[in-house]
Structure formats: C-alpha cells, structure tokens
C-alpha cells in the first residue's frame, strides 16, 4: 500500500495527483511532496502551471529534471510542471508560502488517505 495523503481543495483530478506522486517517487523517494501556488489557493486558470515542492535532501538538480521530464511526458495534461527542491530554495518568503499554504500530496511514513 502506498503512503498517499491528499488534502482537500486542490484543483487537480485525483488520477493526475496519484500519477504525479507515482512518477516522483519512481525517480527517488522524497520525504514529502507538496502542491502549492494557484492550484491550491484557488486562483488557477485553465493554463496555470502545476507548482510542486519536493522535500528531498538527497535530491539533485538532475533528479528534479528527470522527474519534470517524466511528468510532462507521462501525465495526461497539457499543463506544465514547475518542480523544485524545498531544501534548495533561497527565498524565505517562498518557503513560508509552501509551508503555510501548500497541500501535502505525499509524506513518507503517513497512512494512506482518500483523495478529496
């Protein structure tokens, strides 16, 4: 059983969320995957990108690029993905936004929960 936790009010289909989690975990196991930005805050329009923060101390830029490439080629959506490593962020404002407004899609060690 996979450890998946998705909180309510994310503006993405359940199957897309699960595919995103599977692809990212397939590159390298993260501590946490967090959706942030307009897809969470409710300001998303049809062409808004999908902002994802990966919490992975062992994640390199190469890992992020591989995950982004796979997401953009394997997830059935015309949307672009903006993938970043939380631990490499310089902006304390962006970090705070992710921590306070982001929605946890996956967290290592947590029980599986239904996608709302």
Would you give an account of this structure?
The protein is of the alpha+beta class and 116 residues long. The chain has one domain (14-107): Beta Polymerase, domain 2. It is built from four helices and four strands; from the N terminus they run αβαβαβαβ. The protein has helices at residues 14-27, 38-41, 61-74, 92-101, and strands at 32-36, 50-55, 81-85, 103-107. It has a four-stranded mixed beta sheet, sandwiched between helices. Helix 3 links the parallel strand 2 and strand 3 (81-85). The longest helix is centred in the first third of the chain and has 14 residues, at 14-27.
Architecture (CATH level 2) name: 2-Layer Sandwich
Which regions contain 5 or more consecutive residues with pLDDT less than 50?
1-9
Largest sheet: 4 strands, mixed
Mean pLDDT, to the nearest integer, reads 83
**E-strand count:** 4
Overall geometry: globular
CATH class label? Alpha Beta
Strand content: 15-25%
Number of helices: 4
The radius of gyration is 13 Å
- CATH-defined superfamily: Beta Polymerase, domain 2
Strand order of the largest sheet: 3-2-1-4
Number of domains: 1
Helix content range: 25-40%
Order of helices and strands: HEHEHEHE
Structural class: alpha+beta
The CATH topology annotation reads as: Beta Polymerase, domain 2
> What is the terminal separation in angstroms?
18 Å
């Amino acid at each position: 059983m996979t450890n998946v936790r998705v909180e309510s009010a994310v503006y993405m289909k359940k199957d897309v969320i699960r595919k995103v989690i599977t692809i990212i975990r397939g590159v390298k196991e993260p501590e946490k995957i967090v959706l942030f930005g307009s897809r969470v805050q409710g300001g998303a329009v049809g062409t808004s990108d999908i902002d994802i923060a990966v919490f992975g101390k062992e994640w390199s830029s190469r890992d992020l690029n591989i995950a982004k490439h796979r997401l953009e080629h394997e997830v059935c959506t015309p949307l672009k993905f903006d993938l970043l490593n939380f631990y490499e962020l310089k902006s304390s404002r962006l970090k705070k936004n992710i921590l306070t407004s982001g929605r946890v899609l996956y967290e290592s060690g947590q029980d599986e929960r239904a996608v709302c």
